[in-house]
Amino acid sequence: MQAGNATLRAPLAEDVGIYGRFGTASRAASPARFGTAEGTGLSYGLGVSWDFSPRASATLGWDSYDFRTLTGERELRATSLGLQWRY
């Protein structure tokens, strides 16, 4: 899957922030999951981040990908949990 997104971030507190994404996504043909047609559409998501130390943070996010294909519309939703280390 390929995506082009704009991300906006806003702090809620000194070490907690939220972010939102909006953009486009495209998916190549995958017979096992989406049939034989390629799809393009919108992608968007929301998340929260927590800096629990000056060099480490955790994120929890929810993303949505809405594809339009020749055979109909497909929706893909995902949640993610991540750790980031800055050096």
UniProtKB/TrEMBL annotation:
InterPro entries: OMP/PagP_B-barrel (IPR011250). It comes from the Bacteria. It is found in: Cell outer membrane. This is Outer membrane protein beta-barrel domain-containing protein. It comes from Ramlibacter terrae.
